[in-house]
Specification:
The structure holds 2 protein chains of 2 kinds.
Chain A: E1 3-9, H1 16-19, H2 31-35, H3 46-52, E2 57-61, H4 73-80, E3 86-88, H5 93-101, E4 106-108, E5 119-123, E6 128-131, E7 136-139, H6 145-152, H7 156-163, E8 172-173
Parallel strand pairs in A: 1-2, 2-3, 3-4
Antiparallel strand pairs in A: 1-5, 5-6, 6-7
Chain B: H1 5-14, E1 23-27, E2 30-34, H2 38-49, E3 60-63, H3 73-89, E4 92-94, H4 101-109, E5 115-119, E6 132-135, H5 138-147, E7 149-153, E8 157-163, H6 172-183, E9 192-196, H7 205-213, E10 222-224, H8 229-237, E11 257-262, E12 269-271, E13 279-281, H9 282-286, E14 294-298, H10 299-302, H11 305-315, E15 325-329, H12 333-341, H13 344-350, E16 354-355, E17 376-379, E18 395-398, H14 401-410
Classes of the chains: A alpha/beta, B alpha/beta.
The structure holds iron/sulfur cluster.
Chain lengths: 174, 420
């Protein structure tokens, strides 16, 4: 089933400090409140718009999205704000794993081809993003097998619960 | 095929050879959270296991370094929960005033060959000991604490061959800033960085930890040094010589790329706002005569004894410039005690600096020395993202402790080599 939403564009090198600013660290025990400030220092209009929920927005960013700190809060408040999927040219390592761990796909794609406000349909099964506004289809970069397993398992906690352990096909065990 | 340092550590643990690209599940020797990431980890442990628990209490550590002493009641409430969790599970608690998790891991816990994960992006600092240490999110660390293991993709490795001798006034901070400026903030994305070359034996552990702490700023999973005589000497000073073992990559290991750096040709470097990849030589930056409202010495990157010694050497008999505040936070209680014993604290206080208790200080932008609108801070920390010191309308520059101390005296960003 396709995920639908409207593109909200961000630039390259969006840090977790821009996604979940340090000055709101006291809200970390209240994630819905922290989500009111999501990406605030990158674009102050984004959080008010996503939280209104009249539309679903898809974060569309450039290189190394989510760089900086390990704060999983960054990925969580993007999801809490109602964003179903993130598209970017590339991701910082920890953010990438965090996103899949909480069941939010982070897909790679040359996002220059998408414009602010474009209507998008993301088909995970077929690895395709359809830009309805432009009438074009883009293939997204392959999702690594482990990430796919975690995503299909409903996030890493559900995945471990279901399997009763942390096991991947073909992975060795110490 | 020979093994890189990262491959070797994981292979030994798995008791079979693994190579870049393999997915492995491995037991972890230590899993840590700090006060900003711990609560989410505990929530996830409860979701997974139905209660507060850790599989191995002596392999789980909670460090109260980012928010202590608490500047807000919300921070105090988080600290209460961290202490409760430690009491309920028997996990190691390093309470307010102990220091930064990465210094404590290196000083007291991590051995060469260990596997370490932490809900803090600079957990790679401990990889300076020849350990596989890397940062993860809170949920990954919840699993590591609850099950005692985690999964990794064995990383490809970029090898950095360091040659020659650093000039006076140039430090290991300048080596890592040079590297980040050269390869970019995602130049080592998902990879291991491994250090080799004739400079390596001359680098102290304090110098190495500065380099490994900033692997994250190049996008890497970790930055590794071999375990050698410097490592042994460091562990001996910590009363842990028995934890030492030599560890090096195989000569025929396969690297994705090898880069050579003649460190003798480096000059002091500065990262200018707003990213750590924005690296400029001091000669260029000093020409601009940038006034500094605040200078900050400390953090997991440069809050160790050698860093304080360099700064004290520059500050001795001098005074911090009027219109500039100089904040110093030692990285751990051990560093603090040694700085006291050597008279460094006396030098700092006489010079008009503010000396704090062991903690992250202003680095995360949560308390202690946040900046006003338009203010400039020169810091020895590892990142200068917009808003990092609590205010998106302020400007953060990054440098070595020498540039920081000389600039605190001058009131503007200057080349430290004239004050050595
Ligand atoms: S000193 Fe700074 S970078 Fe290091 S752990 Fe603390 S907040 Fe993070």
């Amino acid at each position: 089933m396709a995920i639908r939403g409207v593109a909200w564009k961000f630039g390259d090198y969006i840090s977790t400090d821009l996604i979940a600013p340090g000055r709101y660290a006291h809200l970390r025990s209240d994630l819905p409140k922290l989500a009111e400030h999501v990406l605030e220092d990158a674009d102050a209009n984004f959080a008010p718009a996503t939280l209104k929920k009249d539309k679903t927005y898809i974060v569309v960013a450039g290189r190394n999205f989510g760089q900086g700190s390990s704060r999983e809060h960054a990925a969580r408040i993007i999801k809490l704000a109602g964003v179903p999927v993130v598209l970017a040219k590339s991701y910082a390592r920890i953010f990438y794993r965090n996103a899949f761990n909480i069941g939010m796909p982070a897909l790679t794609l040359d996002t220059d081809r998408i414009a602010q406000g474009d209507e998008l349909e993301v088909d995970l099964k077929r690895s395709l993003v359809r830009d309805v506004t432009k009438g074009q289809e883009f293939r997204v970069g392959a999702i690594p097998e482990t990430m796919l397993a975690i995503l299909e398992g409903g996030g890493i906690v559900e995945f471990v619960r279901k399997h009763g352990d942390l096991v991947f096909k073909g992975a060795g065990r110490s | 095929m020979g093994l890189t340092l990262a491959e070797k550590i994981l292979s030994r643990r798995l008791k079979r050879d693994v190579h870049a690209g393999d997915i492995v599940v491995a037991d972890v020797d230590m899993a840590t959270v700090q006060d900003g990431t711990g609560l989410l980890t505990f929530d996830m442990i409860r979701e997974l296991m139905g209660r507060d628990m850790v599989k191995y209490p002596n392999r789980a550590m909670l460090v109260l370094d980012h928010m202590g002493p608490a500047a807000r009641p919300e921070y105090s409430n988080m600290h209460k929960r961290l202490r409760e969790f430690a009491a309920a599970t028997g996990a190691i608690l390093e309470d307010v005033g102990s220091g930064i998790s990465h210094l404590l891991l290196a000083e007291k816990y991590v051995k060469p060959g260990d596997i370490v994960v932490g809900a803090d992006s600079h957990t790679s600092t401990a990889a300076g000991l020849g350990a596989f240490a890397t940062g993860m999110g809170s949920t990954d660390v919840a699993i590591a604490m609850a099950l005692g293991k985690t999964w990794f993709r064995v990383p490809e490795t970029i090898r950095f061959v360091l040659k020659g001798k650093l000039q006076p006034g140039v430090y290991s901070k300048d080596i890592i800033l040079h590297i980040i400026g050269r390869i970019g903030e995602d130049g080592a994305a998902y990879k291991a960085m491994e250090y080799a070359g004739d400079t390596v034996p001359t680098l102290s552990m304090d110098a190495r930890f500065t380099i490994t702490s900033m692997a994250q700023e190049a996008g890497a999973k970790l930055g590794l040094f071999p375990s050698d005589e410097q490592t042994r000497a460091f562990l001996k000073r910590q009363g842990r010589e028995k934890d030492w073992q030599p560890l090096a990559a195989d000569p025929d290991a396969s690297y994705e790329q090898t880069l050579e750096i003649d460190v003798g040709r480096l000059e002091p470097l500065v990262c200018v706002p707003h990213t750590p990849g924005n690296v400029k030589p001091i000669s260029e930056v000093a020409r601009e005569k940038i006034h500094v409202d605040q200078v900050f010495l400390g953090t997991c990157t440069n809050g160790r004894l050698e860093d304080l010694r360099v700064a004290a050497g520059i500050l001795k008999g001098k005074h911090v410039a009027p219109g500039t505040r100089f904040l110093i936070y030692p990285g751990s209680r051990g560093v603090y005690q040694q700085a006291l014993a050597e008279g460094l604290v006396q030098t700092f206080v006489e010079a008009g600096a503010v000396f704090g208790s062991p903690a992250c200080g202003p680095c995360p932008g949560w308390q202690f020395g946040l900046l006003g609108d338009g203010e400039v801070c020169l810091a020895t920390q590892n990142r200068n993202f917009k808003g990092r010191l609590g205010n998106p309308k302020s400007f953060v520059y990054l440098s070595s402790p020498a540039v920081a101390a000389a600039s605190a005296v001058a009131g503007k960003i200057v080349d430290p080599r004239s004050s050595l």
